[in-house]
Amino acid sequence: MTFVRALPFAVLGLLCAPGPAAAASSPKTAAATSVEAPAAIHARDDRGRDVTLAAPARRAVTLAPHATELVYAAGAGAY
């Protein structure tokens, strides 16, 4: 009976395990980059108003701790 209970957890663990990091082993080459002006961001808010940002946002303010954790999980904490 213990095996039957442990089997779903074992399968879940195998499905969630990370695969091999093939991209990490390939050498990175330096690519020539040109400096361009950031593109404007157009969005529509919840009230239907058009909002335009001249460039991508550099900072964000969150009003709740869980929202801060979500922003960091999305990768914004690295900048």
UniProtKB/TrEMBL annotation:
Keyword annotations: Signal
Gene3D superfamilies documented for this protein: Nitrogenase molybdenum iron protein domain (3.40.50.1980)
SUPFAM superfamilies reported for this sequence: Helical backbone' metal receptor
Signal peptide: 1-23
Name used for this protein in its record: Cobalamin-binding protein
Superkingdom of the organism of origin: Bacteria
